[in-house]
Design brief:
Six copies of one chain form a homohexamer. By secondary structure, chain A is of the alpha+beta class. Chain A is built from three helices and five strands; from the N terminus they run βαβαβαββ.
């Protein structure tokens, strides 16, 4: 098995805010991330898949194809968007980086399976100090 | 003269959108940056000042003091905020990185002069591919 | 399970030197790291914990709390200090990056357990070429 | 067990091209990587080994020795070379990053075993967006 | 005046080799860069232009347009190519990074002038240790 | 004129402390940098020289020669050393990054002049947030 990782980037606005909580509680729990007028990030998304390399090409999967899948399924929907308002696969979900990684996993698992490779990990670098990684559920 | 540079970071939402233009023109001119629901960035702000080092300390200016000035005058006002809605010194100004650099220069020039050093440059790295630098107006 | 990683940084002096060895042997085994007058590094410390995200907040653990724990237990004790002389949890231990990672693990394991999350890994980047990672002992 | 990682760098030319395929098929499958006149990269090679630290030195293995092994077995053979034409351990192998990682693993596994440590992973960063990691075959 | 910088990246093969010198002299002067079978790099190209921001948009020049010009005039000609063999504007020129920066300047100066901005600098980062910057000729 | 920059790295211990001041004043002025038992950094040193490229080689100066000069004059004296105790050209000088940049300039100016190039700038990156640049004295 060889593991290959493709990085794609997106810039998005979001906030951490529960409408069923008063503003004070949102501020207490989520701090400055609860700013009602939003804030945003440059997100780095690292997607890792694994497979045996194809004996003819030496590829696990062509990086171009990997990039196309991630771009079509994720980047086109989140880049220069609002994660709370504009993204179908985040509807009704708190936009923590943890939840974002899980949601992106769900979007990517099946398309990569159809390519003949296994999705191994989704990692999101939100700032240079903070990152999240998700490996799916044990089967 | 020695030049010292302090980096501070902030995460903010913004959009490029003129209310006096129809949505179509905003989309044509500003592309995906015109998304009505905002997007955002991790901004890296590099501030450079120059002076002769103090003979007793060897400092142009203490990095801690430099950080405090930038934090008080800029970071506290822009971090986890919306550049279009929440920032007093950007009121009525298009939030392009160019204009942001000029506005930050205006906020910082006088406080550093009072510290006995000369503001030399304000540089903003908006993404890993895009950055802006402003050196003030020739006197 | 979702894994989140927080980076904190510290700058410290240290040397690799055994008092029970003659200077020549220290130089032979530890090379320039044995300089009697010390040397130092900017260390990047990456701490990873794992847990199910909280359904209300979407957090494994708030990055701010994670940062506070690492700062209180580690950074306040090692930043701008001498790892051989100033750090209680390194007393009597060779200050190799390997031993430092193990020692930091021991300091952090219990505080994170009390937060309801499991410490997964401690990684230290000592230079851009050299890093160490420790995952604890198999239970 | 502690894991230590050493990075070494090399700059090399290569192309992805099968002589048993017509030029059109090479272009279709390998895209711009099939340019007959070659292209090249700055490759970052990360080698990770694991072991218990030596109680006398606190080392899994001295970084200098780790660097010497990687340099002798790999870097001296690939740096400022052509991966398709100049490298003995890539003879007859498609120079995909996947195959390169597997081939480097095979060169390094035995030398590190003789040092008393276990090779854990070979990771190659080919561009800032693309990387490959290989962990060997399950025994 | 505000200065904006756009980074574009390309991967290319090249060698430093004079056909009018014997192989020994090429090796002596150019070292491993003279390898007859080529080597290669990931080049980072930073292009800086300056102008007053447009009062309507706040732009010196739209990054997208800046990227299109650099891509059409430079990247499409050098990416995944051989700088010695495949690039029209490097024909008959030693492919040192210094000469490459000068040649790229000549290709970009006029197109940016037509956009109403002034080319200020061309910087090429060849490896993490080596870079070159060219500011044109004093007029 | 073309400007080329070479980066070299060193790891060193130091402290900011005046023996003619009481410990309290050192702590007040220099903060945690005054720790009597030292601290340390990974310093990145960027040296820029300028010249017309040699018409035969296309070089301002060979990077290998540039590296040898910087290594012999600076790195061999500061790497894995104590800047206050071990470095001849810092004797009696406060080891602020400002003073270090000026002192390194003085060591490098003449050797580069003898190489036929002009030293343009010495830049030291002390942490990812703090850096200093020195351009010499106007002649």
């Amino acid at each position: 098995m060889v593991y290959i990782t493709r990085r794609e980037r997106f810039c998005a606005a979001h906030k951490l805010y529960r409408e069923d909580w008063p503003a004070e509680k949102n501020l207490e729990i989520f701090g400055k991330c609860s700013n009602p007028n939003w804030h945003g990030h440059n997100y780095d998304l690292y997607v890792t898949v694994k497979s045996k390399p194809d004996p003819e090409t030496g590829f696990v999967v062509d990086y171009r194809i990997m990039s196309e899948i991630i771009t079509e399924k994720i980047i086109d929907k989140v880049d220069h968007r609002n994660l709370n308002l504009d993204v179908d696969f985040m509807k009704g979900i708190m936009t923590s980086t943890e939840n974002l990684a899980i949601a992106i996993w769900k979007e990517l698992e099946e398309p990569f399976r159809q390519m003949g490779v296994v999705l191994y990990s989704v990692r999101i670098q939100e700032t240079e100090n903070n990152s999240v990684e998700y490996f799916g559920q044990p089967s």
